[in-house]
Amino acid sequence: MAAYALVTENFKFASLFFKSKDVMIFNGMIALGTVASQTAYNVFAFDCPCSPGRNYYYGIAAIGAPALAFFIVGVMLNKRTWDLVSECRLRRFRKLSTAAAFAVLGSVIGRAVVAPLTWTILSLLQGLAYTCALSEFIDPSSLWGLPPDSKIEDMAMFPCKESVRAELQGFWAEIDRRLKYESQLIGWLVVAGTSLVVFMVMCMRHCSSPLGYQQEEYWSKYRSNEKTLFHRTAAVHAQVMAAKYVESFFGFVALEKDEKEHIVEHKAAASPICSKEWNRVTGVYLYREKNGVPLYSRLNKWATYSAENNVEGFDKEMDVFDSFIT
Length: 326
Known about the structure:
The chain is mainly α.
C-alpha cells in the first residue's frame, strides 16, 4: 500500500511539472522502473551487516548511492544537458543570459530528480535501510526493561532478528516499530515538501511566462512534432548521402526495395549541410518572438531568418530569459 500511494503521488507532481504528455509518460516509466529496482534490491541484495559503525554507512549508502547514480543517469539522458554543453562549446554562453542558463539547468535538474526522489522516498517508507543505519544509535535506557548490560554491539544486531540475543528478542518488535515510524515519517515529509516545492515552481512559472495556456500547449506539440520529423528526415538524408558516396566509390550501391524508393525520391533534393548551419540549429533555446510572430525553436528561428536572407541577423541576437522551459 505504501508503494502504491507513493507512485500515485509521484505521478501527480510529475504531471504538474511536466506538461508534455511524452515527457510525463517517460518520467512515469522512470518512477515505475525505480519502484521495481527498489523492490528487487530489497529482496535480493539488501543485507545489513549488523555491526557497529558499518550499519550506518551501509544504510546511508543503500539510500544515497543509487539515488546519486539515478540522478547522474537522468542528467546524461536529458537532451537539454547536451544543449548546454553545445552552447558552451560553440558560443561559450555569449548569447545566453544568466537567467536563461539557470532556467535550462533547472529544467535538467527537475527532470533528473524524479528517479532519485522515488528511490529515496521508497527506501524511507520501507524503512529497511533507515533501520539498519540507526539501530545502533538507540539509547538502551529509552527501552523499559532492557537488560542494563546491553551495549552498542547488541543494538547494532537488531536489524538481523535471528542474530539478536535470546534475552533481547522481546524488544525486537518495539525497536523495529520505532525506527520504521521515524523512517516513514521522514519519507512522507519529503513527499509533502516536494509537492510544495513543485507547486511553488509552477506558480512562479505561470506568473513569469508571457504565454497563455493554449499557446504553451501548442508550443509543446510543435516541439514534439519538430523533433520527430527532424530525426526522421535526418535519417533519410544521411542514408541518401551515404548511398551517393558509396556509389561513387564502388560504382553501385546495394539497396533494399524501400531504401531505393527513398533514394530515388530524395536524391535530387539532398545536399551536404555545412557545420555552420548545423551549429545554428544546435544549442539552448528559449521562447522568442520576431515582430510579434512566435519563434518556437532554433530551427524555426533559422528558417525565419533564412527566408528573409538575413541569416547573419540570427547570429547577432542574444537569447534572453522570457519564460521557463516547459
